[in-house]
What does this fold into?
Amino acid sequence: MRHATTPALATVRHFYDGLAAGYDLMYADWQASIDRQATALSTLIDAALGSGEGVAHDVLDCACGIGTQALGLAARGHRVTGSDLSPVAAGRAAREAAARGLGLRTLAADMTRLPFGDGLFDVVVCADNSLPHLLTPEAVEAALGEMRRVLRPGGVLLLSTRPYDRLRRERPASTPPQVRQDTGGRVVTFQLWHWRPDGERYDLEHFQLLPGGAGEAGDAAYEVRTRRTSYWALSQAQLTAFARRAGLTEPAWHEPEESGFFQPVLVARGPGADGEGPPRPT
It folds into this structure.
């Protein structure tokens, strides 16, 4: 099903357009995170496809942002295409890849209507809590259906979210501040969460405090940047059911202590050729 970009998705695009320049400042060491995440995702890919370490696959990162997952996977030899709702973020991912000498094609695209032909990719990655920006069952089903469509027979989807089963019980009002020592001083990032009455969706205020000169008494002052977006805190059972309805098979969750990835990861397969399992690499 094809959907025009909704006002909600336009808001998400605006959020990440504005955040792209400073997204890496949310990490104590962005490059170290890129490397760690690529190691964890590659291990899951190899296990799911039955391939040995170092085997290259055609990978779509359909929520690539500034490249946190795509850059690391490309550095490990995978043939990676990155798409993102935010053209500003996708553009930065391309520049980061060029600076590292990596081949990474990027483009702006809505995950509910991916601009790729059927069956082009061995792997689709949708990481870092990107899918929960979709706030309706219709949008979630459309996105997962598109991910399944662009997978080759027996290909693999890796999708990560926040640990929403726990977060829905706890209903946190904020996240702890993250502090990054930058060349100009300390950068502080935190979030405020406003839960809606349904107990599943929440509106988020993202604060980034950047070194911004001196205060009245000569003390360090901060420039405060605030951005807003919304999420659907999908439980693992809900997301598993959506994946099955989209035609994905064998969905299984891998927790951080098992996978080494920083969020729970749903691994699911596209339908195999003639109902068989995934093809083995040659």
Observations:
- Residues 274-282 have pLDDT under 50 and may be disordered.
- Residues 166-232 form one domain.
- The longest strand covers residues 201-214.
- DSSP finds eight helices and eleven strands in the chain.
